[in-house]
Amino acid sequence: MPMSLFTRASPATIDVEADADYDCTCGECPETKISRRTSMRIMYGVLQAMHDLRNEAERHEPNTIIGDVDLRCTYPYNWIPPDVGELHREALIGAYNILLVIYIILQDGGVPDPQAIREICEKEEDQLQFTNDYIQCGGTVVYILDELTNQVEADLRGEACHVDSDEQAEVLEQIRPCVLDNNLHYWRTALGLD
Length: 194
Fold this sequence. Notes:
The protein is mainly α. It has 7 helices and no strands.
């Protein structure tokens, strides 16, 4: 994967009530009310998940069936729905590629709603291999978006699997704070998850 996909990124922290209706205070938020800091935090969550899924997939040979139930109850297997029967290594790569699409949409300033993700996955099927393997094992785009949102919320509560990187902290410090920062209510609304 070319690292150039990751160098175009850009979007810190005032706690607000999750379902309260606030207006932007930074002057930079789009109509969706998803602040730049919130977008950047989500993007870093996507990058971490992609890194972990790729590392896990690389531990297995192609076409390997991952049958260890205890292993499948650990991170990063949370990206795979828990009731999946037969799980092949390629489903991990498919989840990785769906997350890549989410990252690119966010990086371009868009909202990665399920339909937009599906359209890109279909259009770029040759480049985004194994997304169908992920879908065939019971995974969905909505499941990944919901899991991503849950992980970012856990991060904001201080319950994350990973500590924020120094790079992430530096990037967030460079973005003007907004009352909408870390308010995932608008994120969920834009994605149709609420």
